[in-house]
Amino acid sequence: MRLPTDTPAPPGTRVHRFTPAERRVHRGTAALMGLCVLTAAVLYIPQLAILVGRRELVVRVHECAGLALPVPVLLGLASRAFRTDLRFLNRFGPHDRLWLRAALRRATRHAPRPAGKFNAGQKVYAAWIAGATLVMLGTGLMMWFTHLTPLMWRTSATFVHDWLALTIGVVLAGHIGMALADPEARKGLRTGTVSEEWARREHPLWRP
């Protein structure tokens, strides 16, 4: 139970943020996404390709990791807490517009950035990465099963797949950079709990 917003939190108070199932979904998705990015780098950067070799094996690992990427999320749907979080991520409110406006204007940290369990930036990232994953899966399947689609489709799929992969790499780098800058957020994903002070400061509208 969270303390009222006008009541100071005792030092060391921690609140529950993520269940074990939610943390496993995040770890599984992160591991598969990391494998996709690393194998893609080996396939498209000549220096890495020469260093690693075994291109056929790298291709197979890349394909299998890509096909398995939606699996952690699909398994996570068995968790009520995970389904609830998906609803939070898919719901934008007036406070999210305020958060985005402050972020886009590069306002100081003292400027109001109201957020529930997830802030507007996290919601945008989740929606974008989910859509990008589906596009990558679809274009990857067209590239893999060449006999199922016309040549023009496969050529277009290759173009979209390659450039979207580069974009995903850049966005993931930004995501990781922001995570590295927030140790308490990382702790929440690692242990499932966060400090009361952090929750009040970063997610003032959140009521666990």
Radius of gyration: 20 Å
Question: What count of helical segments does DSSP give?
Answer: 10
Major β-sheet profile: 2 strands, antiparallel
Report the strand count. Answer: 2
Strand content: under 5%
Q: What pattern of helices and strands is seen along the backbone?
A: EHHHHHHHHHEH
Structural class by sheet pairing and helices: mainly alpha
Strand order in space, largest sheet: 1-2
Helicity level: 55-70%
Terminal Cα separation, in Å? 7 Å
Shape type:
elongated
Average of per-residue pLDDT values: 88
Low-confidence stretches: 1-6
Characterize the structure shown:
With 208 residues, this protein is mainly α. Helix content is 69%, strand content 3%. The protein has helices at residues 20-44, 46-52, 55-68, 71-76, 80-89, 94-104, 120-144, 151-180, 183-191, 196-202; strands at residues 14-16, 193-195. α1 packs across α2 and α7 packs antiparallel against α8 (151-180). The longest helix is centred in the C-terminal third of the chain and has 30 residues, at 151-180. It is elongated. 13% of the residues are buried.
Task: Give keywords.
208 residues, mainly alpha, 10 helices, 2 strands, 69% helix, 3% strand, disordered N terminus
